[in-house]
Amino acid sequence: MDAAILDGETEPPDCGFDARENGADPEEPPSPTPLFPSFPQAPGDFAPTPLPSFLRRQFPGATRRDWNDWRWQIARRITSQEQADRLLRLSGPERAALGQARTTLPLAVTPYYARLLDPDDPAQPLRRMVLPSPQEARRAPGEADDPLSEDACSPVPGLVHRYPNRVLFLTTDFCSTYCRYCTRSRQVGAACAPGAPAVAHAPERLRARWRLGLDYITRTPAIQDVLLSGGDPLTMPDEALDWLLTQLRAIRHVQIVRIGTKVPAVLPMRVTPALTRMLKKHHPLWMSLHFAHPAELTEDTRTACARLADAGIPLGSQTVLLAGINDEPGVMARLLQGLLGFRVRPYYLYQCDPISGSAHFRTPAARGVELLRALRGRLSGYALPTFVIDAPGGGGKIPLAPDYTLGYSGDDLVLRNYAGGLYRYPDPAGAACAPPQPAMSKGAA
Ligand code: SF4
Question: Which residues contact residue 127 at a Cβ distance below 8 angstroms, ignoring those fewer than 6 apart?
Answer without folding.
Answer: 88, 117, 118, 121
